[in-house]
């Protein structure tokens, strides 16, 4: 795939955050932008963006399946 240079104007703080984010994920800002643009063509692009931004917000106990966690939550709700 050939590449084309793209110049964007964003606040300096945004650039610094993007570089830190990319470095922490062992990727590049260009790769992040490319993945974002590709996600715009997907049918559920908005959901994908929200989902990816929510990753890491919640940690789940190890050794329990999704079904077990749901069952535990329902038991707690109806006690």
Account of the protein in words:
The structure is a single chain. By secondary structure, this protein is mainly α. It has one domain (1-56). Helix content is 58%, strand content 0%. The chain has 4 helices and no strands. The longest helix is centred in the first third of the chain and has 13 residues, at 12-24. The mean pLDDT is 80.
The fraction of residues assigned to DSSP E strands is under 5%
Tell me the number of strands. 0
Low-confidence segments, given as residue ranges, are none
Average pLDDT confidence is: 80
Q: Helicity range of the residues?
A: 55-70%
If you compute it from the alpha carbons, what radius of gyration comes out, rounded to the nearest whole angstrom?
Answer: 19 Å
Number of domains: 1
What about the largest sheet? none
Number of helices: 4
Output the structural class.
mainly alpha
What is the terminal-to-terminal distance?
57 Å
SSE order: HHHH
Shape descriptor: elongated
Offer a few descriptive terms:
single chain, 79 residues
Task: Describe how the helices and strands are arranged.
Layout: H1 12-24, H2 29-39, H3 45-54, H4 66-77
